[in-house]
From TrEMBL:
PANTHER family: PTS SYSTEM GLUCITOL/SORBITOL-SPECIFIC EIIA COMPONENT, PTS SYSTEM GLUCITOL_SORBITOL-SPECIFIC EIIA COMPONENT. This is PTS system glucitol/sorbitol-specific EIIA component. The lineage of its organism: Bacteria, Bacillati, Bacillota, Clostridia, Peptostreptococcales. Pfam families: PTSIIA_gutA (PF03829). InterPro entries: PTS_IIA_glucitol/sorbitol-sp (IPR004716), PTS_IIA_glucitol/sorbitol_sf (IPR036665). PROSITE patterns: PTS_EIIA_TYPE_5 (PS51097).
Amino acid sequence: MATIYKNKIKNIGSEVSAFEGEPMFILFGDNAPDTLKDFCYTVDIQPVSETIEVGHTVGIDGNEYKITAIGNVAEQNLVSLGHVTIVFDGSTEASLPGSIYVESLEVPKLSIGSEILIKK
């Protein structure tokens, strides 16, 4: 599988635990609005080398999760803002435009230095 996106967590918002028990996490670049910054994992803004598609995988610290749906602005937000919500509920229809949906599996624990990949 070829990697089309690669990033690392560089900061953890003080309120990310508010989403504990929810099947999701939020990534955002350094420019996250103050109202969201504390709820996000901060990443650098990185390019995507090819279009993200259903069937690709999100890799997190060596674990892989198949993409099941993609919101219509998810890739654009990821590239321009470093912003995307990864939802672990297996949805095949994207109900939130800025989200990437993956298999319904346990949400991984992220830490500073955790690697996020998207592979085709």
